[in-house]
Amino acid sequence: FYRFDWTDGSDAAVAQLAAMSGRDVVFRTALGLARHGEPPLQDEDITTVHFRHLGPAEIARYVDLESPLDCAGSFKAEGLGITLFEAIDSRDPTALIGLPLIGLAQLLREAGYVLP
Predict the structure, then answer these.
(1) Rounded distance, CA 21 to CA 14, Å?
(2) Where are the alpha helices (DSSP H) in 1-116?
């Protein structure tokens, strides 16, 4: 388990990416749907990101180009961050970007909403 001080900006992003280099990192994204008078509905996505071995120069280049300072994990999988990985395992690829839309759609259907 790694903990970083995010006040350092790009230095913290570089340190976090260096710590994840060559590792499998698990990201958990949970969501809930609250309805008045009903028990909440919940879902969780577990995404495993398999990071390539990353050299200091490519990490610095990536952080400089994409500036992923406001992202969990210090990368943007929807952008250049995809080049940092060997693979991504997930049932809902939108979870890594933010809101797990497949899970949300499932919860909305369970709540009675009709979706296409």
Answers:
(1) 10
(2) 10-20, 56-66, 94-97, 101-110
Q: Are 63 and 10 in contact (CB under 8 A)?
A: yes
Closest by CA position to 73, among listed 115, 12, 116: 12
pTM of the model: 0.85
For residue 7, pLDDT over 80 is answered with no
Cα atoms found within 13 Å of the Cα of residue 86, Cβ hemisphere only: 12
Side-chain half-sphere CA neighbours of 1 within 13 A: 1
Instruction: Retrieve residue 13's tokens.
Output: 């992003």
Scan for tokens 């809902």, then name that residue. Answer: 92
The answer to whether the CB of 21 falls within 8 A of the CB of 52 is yes
